Amino acid sequence: MTASPRTRRATAALIVPLLIPFAAACGSEEPSKDGAIPAVSASAQDEKPKIDKGEGDPPKKLKTKVLKQGKGPKVRKGDVVNATYHGQLWNGKVFDTTWKKGGEPVSFQLGRGSVIPGWDEGLVGQRMGSRVELVVPPDKAYGNKSQGPIPKNSTLVFVVDLKKTLPNKVDGKPVEEPDPELPEVSTEITDKAPKIEVEKGAKAPKGVRSTTVLEGDGEEITSESTVLANFTAKLWNGEPFANSWQQTGPQDYPVKQMVGWEKGLEGKKQGSRVVISVPREEFPKKARAQIPSDVVFSVDVLSVK
Predict the structure, then answer these.
(1) Alpha helix positions (H), 211-299
(2) Structure confidence at residue 252 (pLDDT)
């Protein structure tokens, strides 16, 4: 992550705290000499798995076991994957699971450093529709740093159900006359964040204001939608503020929980790139301490649900 500590703190106040910690590819399915892969009680997708606690010393290398072989295409580096998962420590203590959230899948990008190396290495190459068990040693997870309920130097055990792949880029067409009072945003579609050009001395409009610069033709966003999106943001003084291309990759964001996005995205469509100007006063008081001016977002809407 390349954002400054101040930017990270401010961004954390904006982003829904989704625990999507990890990623994978092709570990061995053979039991480790110093600890067997924990058994899993249910192998079918959509059934909440029960993972036995680890016995003996945990493996020192990444271990991958396909519990149910899917029939879909293989996951490739850079794919955005929709999946459910269950995660616990080697000692059996559960630290996160999508089943406690109603079983709703989450979305994340693989092979780009958006998730832990164990997921980048263990899931790339697996077929969609598969249920995969991963045993991830500390050097492929969080190493000697604690992460929420995960102590430092922890070996992590996951069961991941690979549901489907999602778009990793927008496909909208350039709009001829976007709002001229908002900063100009590039319409080029690449693997990097589009440039936001804030003119020196330009003043932000009052209230939340948005315009579409690339218009897609997919599902329309409502106030109840969750969007899979990449976004970049600048302060109106020209200072960079956040860049999900560099920090997290595309993730799911309920628009109601993102400051200014409910108003700015409502009525827009999947596949679009939308520019949203959000006044500093719209942010929570604690976040405003880290934000010296209004904020302009460029949001690439990859999927809507």
Answers:
(1) 244-247, 261-265, 285-288
(2) 94
Q: Which residues, at least 6 apart from 36, have a Cβ–Cβ distance to it below 8 Å?
A: 55, 56
Averaged pLDDT score across all residues of the chain: 88
- Between the CA atoms of 69, 70, 74 and 80, what dihedral angle is there, to the nearest 10 degrees? -120
145 with 186, same domain: the answer is no
Q: How far is the C-alpha of 8 from the C-alpha of 249, rounded, in Å?
A: 14
How many domains does the chain contain in total? 2
- Whether residue 123 is found in the same domain as residue 240: no
Asked if 108 and 123 touch (Cβ cutoff 8 Å), the reply is no
Look at the alpha carbons of 1, 190, 263, 202 in this order and tell me if their dihedral is positive or negative: positive
Mapped onto helix, strand or coil, the DSSP state of residue 286 is: helix
User: What beta strand segments (E) does 101-146 contain?
Assistant: 106-109, 116, 131-136
The token pair at 221 is: 């966003």
The answer to the question of residue 3 being in a domain is no
Q: Is the pTM of this model over 0.90?
A: no
211: domain range?
173-304
Q: Does one domain contain both 155 and 178?
A: no
Say if CB 245 and CB 302 are below 8 A apart.
Answer: no
Look at residue 5 and tell me if it is in a domain: no
CATH of the domain at 162: 3.10.50.40
At 238 the pLDDT is 92
Q: Which amino acid is at 28?
A: S
